[in-house]
DNA sequence: CAAAAACGTGGTCATTTGACCAATGTTTAC
DNA sequence: GTAAACATTGGTCAAATGACCACGTTTTTG
């Protein structure tokens, strides 16, 4: 499990194996069952989360109980509730497993000191953060301007590998449309 | 004009006046007429933009010509097209003046070297970036989960001072609803 | 392997929303 | 100061959407 992470970091940063093993050694490994929660909204998100295998979702629950997905995090990706992690405030999102998953967790203090120690890691980390900023910006644009069909097509284009792994109601709640609308437009596309 | 910026930076960072004057001296000042464009989608956004007075909007134009506002930037705030600024790629948004405005512009190279030179500026800059990340995250949540009325109420709560300064169609295009829906719900609220 | 839960699809219906058009009042620009 | 452009509100209508319900199938789970 840790070796997959180490391989990933080496390929992404070119860091020496010894440093990567050090980073890896500070992580806490955890196995999640399907639907198990890792972070609960309202609590503080105290860890950086790296998904080694499986699939997590980062989602908020509205007052009326409806769920809204902020992010899907498949294997070899990162997730957390940034605002909570940075400031120790209550998280606005839940983070849970869609599939049985393996994750690595770092406490903020540990991760911060690693960022100090390894400039290559810091550089990479900032890349990840930047990508996330761009992604959210584009997502706001899409949410504002696209029709349900365009949103779905963009999702398929962006995450083709996730299509078969997610129940449709989660895709709908990621796109901000109802399940009904989603099945309708899928049906319409079949007829073309 | 520059003094307003210097005052702002000193109050936000506690930097010494001499450093702030240096920063200020590297900026290019510009006056914008109402509706004048500062950054055009498709071109590269080459500057950090600080709004000294007036009001800018950062917005995308969809294929069908409809406009969608990503951000309003009133006096004493920052704006740019991040992805374009960072990577030199074409901007996805236009940035233009809603009111006659005064802005300060820094070239990326200059701003980067200032970040190196002044740790307090770097720290503050990262705060601004963080706030922006949190803001976009919340915005995605709202866009996904809130009703038009809730979106409007959240806007009023978040930016009470902007209400009277913006035409309603811009607020609608910020909220991702039609002008018609916006006037409808405002009318409904009047009756309560 | 069997029972239970979750999933995808479909139907109906009421409601919301947007597109289009018009009228009036206000602001801008020359 | 005046003409032109813009803003706000309103009406009507068609279309899109979501809520609710049901059914058959697949997937989990014990």
TrEMBL record, chains A, B:
Residues 30-118 form the Cyclic nucleotide-binding domain. Pfam families: cNMP_binding (PF00027). This is Crp/Fnr family transcriptional regulator.
């Amino acid at each position: 499990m840790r070796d997959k992470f180490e391989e990933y970091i080496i390929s992404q940063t070119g860091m020496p194996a010894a440093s990567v093993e050090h980073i890896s050694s500070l992580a806490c490994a955890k196995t999640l069952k399907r639907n198990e929660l890792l972070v609960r909204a309202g609590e503080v998100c105290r860890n950086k989360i790296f998904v080694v295998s499986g699939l997590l979702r980062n989602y908020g629950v509205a007052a009326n109980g409806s769920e809204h997905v902020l992010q899907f995090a498949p294997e070899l990706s990162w997730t957390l509730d940034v605002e909570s992690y940075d400031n120790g405030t209550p998280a606005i999102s839940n983070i849970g497993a869609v599939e049985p998953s393996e994750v690595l967790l770092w406490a903020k203090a540990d991760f911060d000191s690693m960022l100090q120690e390894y400039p290559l890691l810091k550089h990479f980390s900032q890349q990840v953060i930047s990508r996330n900023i761009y992604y959210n910006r584009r997502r706001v644009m899409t949410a504002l301007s696209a029709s349900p069909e365009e949103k779905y097509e963009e999702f398929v284009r962006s995450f083709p590998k996730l299509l078969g792994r997610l129940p449709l109601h989660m895709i709908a709640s990621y796109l901000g449309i109802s399940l009904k609308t989603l099945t309708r437009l899928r049906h319409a596309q079949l007829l073309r």
